[in-house]
Amino acid sequence: MKGTFVTFEGCEGVGKSRQIKLLEDYLKNNNIKYYLTREPGGTPVSEQIRNVILDGKNVSMTDECEALLYAAARVQLLKEVVAPKLANGELVLCDRYVDSSLAYQGYARGLGVEFIEKINDFAIKNFMPDYTIFLNLTPEEAFKRKGGVDKTDRVELSGAEFHNKVYGGYLDLAKKYPERFIVIDASGEKEQTHAKVISALKEKGVL
Ligand code: TYD
Prior knowledge:
Elements: E1 4-9, H1 16-29, E2 35-38, H2 44-54, H3 63-87, E3 91-95, H4 98-108, H5 113-124, E4 131-136, H6 139-146, H7 160-176, E5 181-185, H8 190-203
Parallel strand pairs: 1-3, 1-4, 2-3, 4-5
Helix pairs in contact: 1-8, 2-3, 3-5, 4-5, 4-7
Thymidine-5'-diphosphate is lined by residues 12, 16-17, 39-40, 54, 70, 95-96, 100-101, 104-105, 155.
């Protein structure tokens, strides 16, 4: 039996971590078994790659190098953790996946969707999530809610124009993959957003 693979996407500060935590509480309270991981990271090798990518000191990192490092961290996580667990019939939740690379590196850094698709086809061979929950909130709203930018994080320091492009990229992806994308309005209170996530996952038969 094949399990279910659900990923979470959104711009910085949309409350993604908080929503994942609320979903975890729900799953625990309902005795639903799951495995939660994150990108970049989720394995010892991928976590080391994460440290290199997100290190604010690595200002000389090229966009191409960054995109390839994300894909490298991804394939390690996929082979070591995600694919075996899905083969075992488990529910696997992942905080970000290839859509982040498409939105951040493809659209926002300007490498183009085709380049990102190509390197990720090579890395993950069309291994896509069953469903992708996109927490829909504009970067402007998100940073307001978060109380500003984390100055030690290389990605968060990228500026408003960059984050608006990320957001536009996600909206395009949601349009392009309507069967897979579950767009959740994340502008309300966290409990309201959580209720929307649960009802969407129930509707899709995941819960
Ligand atoms: P993280 O601190 O986990 O941020 P968040 O809580 O917003 O998920 O850092 C992950 C950062 O990496 C985030 O800014 C998005 C970025 N990212 C990419 O640019 N491309 C990718 O493929 C992935 C997986 C993440």
